[in-house]
Amino acid sequence: MDFAILVAVACLFALVTGMNDGGALLATGLKLPTVRPATGILALVVMVALVPLATQAVARTFVHRLATFDEPGGRTAMTVAVLAALTVVTVLSAKGRPTSLTLAVVGGLTGAGLGWGLPVSAGAVALVLAFGLAAPFVGGLVAWGVALLLVRWSSTRGLERWHWAGFLLQTVAYAANDGQKMLAVFMIALGFSGAPLPYTSLVAVLFGLGALYGLPRAGRTLGHEIIASRPLHGVSAELASGTAVIACALLGMPVSMTQSVAGGLIGAGVATGGGRVRWYAAVKIVVAWLLTLPASALLAAGVAFILSST
Predict the structure, then answer these.
(1) 268 conformational bin, left if phi > 0, alpha if psi -120 to 50, beta if neither
(2) What DSSP character marks residue 310?
(3) Cα separation of 305 and 77, whole Å?
(4) pLDDT digits (tens, 9 = 90+) for 164-209
Protein backbone atom coordinates (compact mmCIF):
# COMPACT_ATOMS: atom_id res chain seq x y z
CA MET A 1 0.00 0.00 0.00
CA ASP A 2 1.24 3.47 -0.84
CA PHE A 3 3.35 5.01 1.94
CA ALA A 4 1.46 8.32 1.75
CA ILE A 5 -1.85 6.53 2.41
CA LEU A 6 -0.39 4.81 5.49
CA VAL A 7 0.83 8.12 6.91
CA ALA A 8 -2.48 9.84 6.10
CA VAL A 9 -4.42 7.10 7.91
CA ALA A 10 -2.12 7.37 10.94
CA CYS A 11 -2.61 11.17 11.04
CA LEU A 12 -6.38 10.83 10.66
CA PHE A 13 -6.43 8.32 13.49
CA ALA A 14 -4.59 10.72 15.82
CA LEU A 15 -7.09 13.51 14.99
CA VAL A 16 -10.11 11.29 15.62
CA THR A 17 -8.57 10.01 18.84
CA GLY A 18 -8.31 13.58 20.05
CA MET A 19 -11.95 14.19 19.17
CA ASN A 20 -13.06 10.99 20.91
CA ASP A 21 -10.74 10.95 23.93
CA GLY A 22 -9.38 14.44 24.49
CA GLY A 23 -12.71 16.09 25.15
CA ALA A 24 -13.74 13.27 27.46
CA LEU A 25 -10.64 13.77 29.59
CA LEU A 26 -11.46 17.44 30.10
CA ALA A 27 -15.23 17.07 30.38
CA THR A 28 -15.23 15.49 33.82
CA GLY A 29 -13.76 18.60 35.44
CA LEU A 30 -15.64 21.32 33.56
CA LYS A 31 -17.87 22.03 36.57
CA LEU A 32 -14.79 23.47 38.29
CA PRO A 33 -12.95 26.43 36.71
CA THR A 34 -9.61 25.28 38.13
CA VAL A 35 -8.34 23.84 34.84
CA ARG A 36 -9.34 25.93 31.85
CA PRO A 37 -9.99 24.02 28.61
CA ALA A 38 -7.03 25.67 26.85
CA THR A 39 -4.72 24.83 29.76
CA GLY A 40 -6.06 21.30 29.89
CA ILE A 41 -5.52 20.65 26.19
CA LEU A 42 -2.00 22.07 26.38
CA ALA A 43 -1.20 19.79 29.32
CA LEU A 44 -2.57 16.80 27.41
CA VAL A 45 -0.48 17.65 24.34
CA VAL A 46 2.70 17.95 26.42
CA MET A 47 2.07 14.65 28.23
CA VAL A 48 1.20 12.76 25.03
CA ALA A 49 4.47 14.01 23.53
CA LEU A 50 6.76 13.36 26.50
CA VAL A 51 5.49 10.40 28.55
CA PRO A 52 6.06 7.84 25.74
CA LEU A 53 9.74 8.81 25.81
CA ALA A 54 9.89 7.06 29.19
CA THR A 55 7.62 4.07 28.49
CA GLN A 56 6.09 2.51 25.40
CA ALA A 57 4.86 -0.71 27.03
CA VAL A 58 1.27 -0.30 25.89
CA ALA A 59 2.28 0.72 22.34
CA ARG A 60 4.38 -2.43 22.10
CA THR A 61 1.37 -4.48 23.16
CA PHE A 62 -0.63 -3.05 20.26
CA VAL A 63 2.23 -3.60 17.81
CA HIS A 64 3.63 -6.98 18.87
CA ARG A 65 1.50 -8.85 21.40
CA LEU A 66 -1.93 -8.87 19.71
CA ALA A 67 -0.70 -9.75 16.22
CA THR A 68 2.55 -9.58 14.27
CA PHE A 69 2.45 -6.70 11.80
CA ASP A 70 6.08 -6.76 10.65
CA GLU A 71 5.39 -9.60 8.20
CA PRO A 72 4.50 -9.07 4.52
CA GLY A 73 1.17 -7.32 4.28
CA GLY A 74 1.29 -6.23 7.90
CA ARG A 75 1.09 -2.52 7.16
CA THR A 76 -1.87 -2.98 4.85
CA ALA A 77 -3.60 -5.06 7.52
CA MET A 78 -2.93 -2.29 10.04
CA THR A 79 -4.52 0.28 7.74
CA VAL A 80 -7.58 -1.94 7.36
CA ALA A 81 -7.75 -2.33 11.15
CA VAL A 82 -7.63 1.42 11.78
CA LEU A 83 -10.20 2.25 9.12
CA ALA A 84 -12.51 -0.49 10.41
CA ALA A 85 -12.19 0.87 13.97
CA LEU A 86 -12.92 4.43 12.83
CA THR A 87 -15.91 3.26 10.80
CA VAL A 88 -17.50 1.39 13.71
CA VAL A 89 -16.92 4.24 16.18
CA THR A 90 -18.33 6.79 13.70
CA VAL A 91 -21.45 4.73 13.03
CA LEU A 92 -22.15 4.10 16.72
CA SER A 93 -21.52 7.76 17.63
CA ALA A 94 -23.87 8.89 14.86
CA LYS A 95 -26.55 6.67 16.40
CA GLY A 96 -26.05 8.33 19.78
CA ARG A 97 -23.99 5.47 21.23
CA PRO A 98 -20.57 6.90 22.17
CA THR A 99 -18.04 4.12 22.55
CA SER A 100 -14.40 3.24 23.14
CA LEU A 101 -11.93 3.78 20.32
CA THR A 102 -9.45 1.57 22.16
CA LEU A 103 -11.85 -1.38 22.08
CA ALA A 104 -12.40 -0.71 18.38
CA VAL A 105 -8.66 -0.72 17.68
CA VAL A 106 -8.11 -3.95 19.62
CA GLY A 107 -10.91 -5.56 17.62
CA GLY A 108 -9.67 -4.10 14.35
CA LEU A 109 -6.07 -5.22 14.82
CA THR A 110 -7.14 -8.71 15.88
CA GLY A 111 -9.62 -9.09 13.03
CA ALA A 112 -7.27 -7.71 10.39
CA GLY A 113 -4.50 -10.00 11.59
CA LEU A 114 -6.75 -13.05 11.34
CA GLY A 115 -8.17 -11.98 7.99
CA TRP A 116 -4.73 -11.43 6.50
CA GLY A 117 -3.33 -14.64 7.96
CA LEU A 118 -0.89 -12.98 10.33
CA PRO A 119 0.06 -14.62 13.64
CA VAL A 120 -2.46 -13.58 16.31
CA SER A 121 -1.99 -14.38 20.01
CA ALA A 122 -5.29 -15.62 21.45
CA GLY A 123 -3.88 -15.43 24.97
CA ALA A 124 -2.77 -11.82 24.61
CA VAL A 125 -6.12 -10.82 23.09
CA ALA A 126 -8.01 -12.53 25.93
CA LEU A 127 -5.82 -10.84 28.55
CA VAL A 128 -6.33 -7.40 26.99
CA LEU A 129 -10.07 -8.00 26.86
CA ALA A 130 -10.15 -9.03 30.52
CA PHE A 131 -8.38 -5.84 31.57
CA GLY A 132 -10.59 -3.76 29.29
CA LEU A 133 -13.77 -5.20 30.77
CA ALA A 134 -12.51 -4.73 34.31
CA ALA A 135 -11.34 -1.12 33.89
CA PRO A 136 -14.73 0.66 34.21
CA PHE A 137 -15.70 -1.47 37.22
CA VAL A 138 -12.38 -0.79 38.94
CA GLY A 139 -12.70 2.91 38.13
CA GLY A 140 -16.22 2.93 39.56
CA LEU A 141 -15.20 1.15 42.75
CA VAL A 142 -12.22 3.43 43.36
CA ALA A 143 -14.31 6.53 42.62
CA TRP A 144 -16.96 5.36 45.07
CA GLY A 145 -14.35 5.29 47.86
CA VAL A 146 -12.70 8.54 46.76
CA ALA A 147 -16.05 10.37 46.67
CA LEU A 148 -16.88 9.30 50.23
CA LEU A 149 -13.48 10.49 51.44
CA LEU A 150 -13.73 13.82 49.64
CA VAL A 151 -17.18 14.46 51.13
CA ARG A 152 -15.67 14.13 54.59
CA TRP A 153 -12.33 15.83 54.11
CA SER A 154 -12.60 18.51 51.44
CA SER A 155 -14.11 21.96 51.32
CA THR A 156 -14.85 23.61 47.98
CA ARG A 157 -11.39 25.17 48.00
CA GLY A 158 -9.80 21.86 48.87
CA LEU A 159 -11.71 20.23 46.04
CA GLU A 160 -10.03 22.58 43.58
CA ARG A 161 -6.61 21.35 44.69
CA TRP A 162 -7.74 17.76 44.30
CA HIS A 163 -9.03 18.66 40.86
CA TRP A 164 -5.55 19.75 39.78
CA ALA A 165 -4.03 16.59 41.24
CA GLY A 166 -6.65 14.39 39.59
CA PHE A 167 -6.33 16.06 36.22
CA LEU A 168 -2.54 15.80 36.16
CA LEU A 169 -2.73 12.15 37.23
CA GLN A 170 -5.25 11.52 34.47
CA THR A 171 -3.13 13.15 31.76
CA VAL A 172 -0.07 11.10 32.73
CA ALA A 173 -2.18 7.93 32.82
CA TYR A 174 -3.66 8.62 29.40
CA ALA A 175 -0.27 9.31 27.83
CA ALA A 176 1.18 6.15 29.39
CA ASN A 177 -1.70 3.93 28.34
CA ASP A 178 -4.73 4.72 26.20
CA GLY A 179 -3.00 7.42 24.17
CA GLN A 180 -0.30 5.04 23.00
CA LYS A 181 -2.64 3.47 20.46
CA MET A 182 -1.83 6.52 18.30
CA LEU A 183 1.91 5.92 18.68
CA ALA A 184 1.39 2.24 17.85
CA VAL A 185 -0.31 3.08 14.55
CA PHE A 186 2.61 5.34 13.58
CA MET A 187 5.11 2.67 14.65
CA ILE A 188 3.48 0.13 12.33
CA ALA A 189 2.93 2.60 9.46
CA LEU A 190 6.44 4.06 9.50
CA GLY A 191 8.31 0.99 10.72
CA PHE A 192 10.17 2.56 13.65
CA SER A 193 10.63 1.29 17.20
CA GLY A 194 10.73 3.22 20.43
CA ALA A 195 9.27 6.72 20.60
CA PRO A 196 11.35 9.39 18.80
CA LEU A 197 10.40 12.87 19.97
CA PRO A 198 9.52 14.18 16.46
CA TYR A 199 6.91 11.43 16.07
CA THR A 200 5.46 11.74 19.56
CA SER A 201 5.26 15.51 19.04
CA LEU A 202 3.40 15.07 15.75
CA VAL A 203 0.98 12.66 17.43
CA ALA A 204 0.46 15.09 20.30
CA VAL A 205 -0.28 18.09 18.04
CA LEU A 206 -2.79 16.13 15.95
CA PHE A 207 -4.39 14.83 19.13
CA GLY A 208 -4.68 18.36 20.52
CA LEU A 209 -6.38 19.64 17.37
CA GLY A 210 -8.90 16.81 17.58
CA ALA A 211 -9.51 17.50 21.27
CA LEU A 212 -10.34 21.14 20.53
CA TYR A 213 -13.01 20.02 18.09
CA GLY A 214 -14.41 17.19 20.23
CA LEU A 215 -14.61 18.92 23.61
CA PRO A 216 -18.20 20.26 23.41
CA ARG A 217 -19.72 16.90 22.42
CA ALA A 218 -17.72 14.93 24.99
CA GLY A 219 -18.72 17.43 27.66
CA ARG A 220 -22.39 16.79 26.97
CA THR A 221 -21.99 13.00 27.00
CA LEU A 222 -19.98 12.53 30.17
CA GLY A 223 -21.03 15.65 32.03
CA HIS A 224 -24.79 15.38 31.53
CA GLU A 225 -26.01 12.14 29.97
CA ILE A 226 -24.51 9.61 32.41
CA ILE A 227 -24.96 11.66 35.55
CA ALA A 228 -26.20 15.04 36.72
CA SER A 229 -22.58 15.81 37.43
CA ARG A 230 -21.29 17.96 40.29
CA PRO A 231 -17.66 18.97 40.86
CA LEU A 232 -17.25 16.18 43.41
CA HIS A 233 -18.18 13.56 40.81
CA GLY A 234 -15.72 14.88 38.24
CA VAL A 235 -12.80 15.09 40.68
CA SER A 236 -13.52 11.59 42.05
CA ALA A 237 -13.68 10.18 38.50
CA GLU A 238 -10.37 11.85 37.58
CA LEU A 239 -8.52 10.45 40.59
CA ALA A 240 -10.03 6.99 40.19
CA SER A 241 -9.59 6.63 36.44
CA GLY A 242 -6.03 7.97 36.58
CA THR A 243 -5.10 5.45 39.26
CA ALA A 244 -6.70 2.48 37.46
CA VAL A 245 -5.24 3.32 34.04
CA ILE A 246 -1.70 3.90 35.35
CA ALA A 247 -1.83 0.54 37.10
CA CYS A 248 -2.76 -1.13 33.81
CA ALA A 249 -0.01 0.77 31.97
CA LEU A 250 2.59 -0.67 34.35
CA LEU A 251 1.50 -4.12 33.12
CA GLY A 252 1.48 -3.05 29.46
CA MET A 253 -2.29 -3.58 29.24
CA PRO A 254 -4.21 -1.08 27.08
CA VAL A 255 -7.48 0.09 28.61
CA SER A 256 -9.89 2.84 27.67
CA MET A 257 -9.66 6.05 29.66
CA THR A 258 -13.18 7.04 28.60
CA GLN A 259 -14.50 3.73 29.95
CA SER A 260 -12.67 4.27 33.23
CA VAL A 261 -13.94 7.85 33.48
CA ALA A 262 -17.51 6.74 32.81
CA GLY A 263 -17.21 4.05 35.46
CA GLY A 264 -15.73 6.60 37.85
CA LEU A 265 -18.63 9.02 37.34
CA ILE A 266 -21.13 6.24 38.04
CA GLY A 267 -19.22 5.12 41.13
CA ALA A 268 -19.08 8.67 42.47
CA GLY A 269 -22.79 9.11 41.73
CA VAL A 270 -23.69 5.96 43.62
CA ALA A 271 -21.58 7.08 46.59
CA THR A 272 -23.52 10.35 46.83
CA GLY A 273 -26.95 8.96 45.94
CA GLY A 274 -27.65 6.45 43.16
CA GLY A 275 -30.63 8.46 41.96
CA ARG A 276 -28.24 10.94 40.33
CA VAL A 277 -27.01 8.28 37.89
CA ARG A 278 -28.98 8.09 34.64
CA TRP A 279 -28.92 4.33 34.32
CA TYR A 280 -30.64 4.24 30.93
CA ALA A 281 -27.78 6.29 29.46
CA ALA A 282 -25.21 4.08 31.20
CA VAL A 283 -26.82 0.94 29.78
CA LYS A 284 -26.83 2.49 26.30
CA ILE A 285 -23.10 3.15 26.52
CA VAL A 286 -22.36 -0.35 27.85
CA VAL A 287 -24.26 -1.88 24.92
CA ALA A 288 -22.15 0.20 22.54
CA TRP A 289 -18.98 -1.05 24.24
CA LEU A 290 -20.13 -4.67 23.83
CA LEU A 291 -20.84 -4.12 20.13
CA THR A 292 -17.65 -2.24 19.33
CA LEU A 293 -14.97 -4.90 19.50
CA PRO A 294 -16.74 -7.74 17.64
CA ALA A 295 -18.07 -5.34 14.99
CA SER A 296 -14.59 -3.90 14.39
CA ALA A 297 -13.03 -7.36 14.33
CA LEU A 298 -15.57 -8.76 11.84
CA LEU A 299 -15.34 -5.75 9.53
CA ALA A 300 -11.53 -5.71 9.58
CA ALA A 301 -11.30 -9.50 9.11
CA GLY A 302 -13.63 -9.44 6.11
CA VAL A 303 -11.86 -6.58 4.35
CA ALA A 304 -8.39 -7.96 5.13
CA PHE A 305 -9.33 -11.40 3.83
CA ILE A 306 -10.67 -9.96 0.57
CA LEU A 307 -7.58 -7.80 0.04
CA SER A 308 -5.17 -10.62 0.86
CA SER A 309 -6.94 -12.91 -1.63
CA THR A 310 -6.69 -10.52 -4.57
Answers:
(1) alpha
(2) -
(3) 9
(4) 888 899 999 999 999 999 999 999 888 888 889 999 999 999 999 9
